Amino acid sequence: MQDLLIATRNAHKTTEFRQLLGPCFTVRDLTGLAAVPEVEESGATFLENARLKALAISRHFPGQLVLADDSGLEVDVLEGAPGVHSARFAGRDAGDASNRALLLRELEKRYARGKQRSARFRCTLVLARDGREILHSQGDVPGWIIHRERGKEGFGYDPLFVPAGRCHTFAQLPPEDKNRLSHRCRAVESLLRKWASAAPGRETSPGPAEQPNHRV
To answer: Residues with Cβ < 8 Å from 27, sequence gap 6 or more?
Structure first.
C-alpha cells in the first residue's frame, strides 16, 4: 500500500481521489498542514499548473509521493473558457455559485443554444517525489452546459454539466456513477496504467508539454 499526499485542501477532490484510487493507496491531503505555502497556479495549461503544485509540495515532504491535479471546464463557444481559470472564473475569492452564475450569463450573452453549448471537463495529474516528476496523465469527458442548475451532488460546475450520452448532470448522479464517467476518473485510470507498467522506483523525466488548452 502506497502513502499518497494529494496537493489540495479541497475535501471534495480528496474524497473523489480516495474512491478512485482504491485500497492500494492511503490518501491524505494538505488539510491541517498550515506550514505548507500556497502554490501560485501561474501556468498557461492544466499540465503546467499541476506540475507546479506537485513539484513544489513534494519538496516539502522528502520521500513522499505527491499527486497534484489541475482540472476545469472548457466551453467551446467561450473559446475554451473558463479553462485554467475555472476555480476563479468570477474572481479570486469567488465561490462555486458565483462561477456558475457568470458562466450562464456569458452563454446568454452569446445566445448559445443546443450544440453551441458543447463543453468538456479536463483533468491533468502529475505524480512527483522530492521535487521531481515521476509521471503525468490526462483525462477528459465531453458534454454540454444546460440553462439552469440541476442536482445537489458534486461541486463546482457539476449542476450545469451533462456528460455526452446522458440525461442527468454530474450533480444529479450518485458519486459512484459520476466517478465512473468523470474526467478525474479517466485521468486516474491512465495514471494507474502508467504506474503499473513502470519499473519499481523508476522516475521519468517530464514528458512533452500537453497541447495548450483554450483559456480566457
So the answer is: 4, 6, 14, 17, 18, 21
Q: What share of the chain is helix, strand, coil (3-state, %, to 5)?
A: 40, 25, 40
Q: Which of 70, 96, 130, 177 is an active site residue?
A: 70
pLDDT of 195-213, one tens digit each? 888 755 545 444 433 433 4
Strands 161-163 and 132-145: antiparallel
Cell 465531453, located at residue: 142
140 carries an active-site annotation:
no
Looking at the DSSP bridge assignments, the partners of residue 161 are 145
Flag whether pLDDT at 10 surpasses 90: no
Contacts of 208 (CB under 8 A, 6+ apart): none
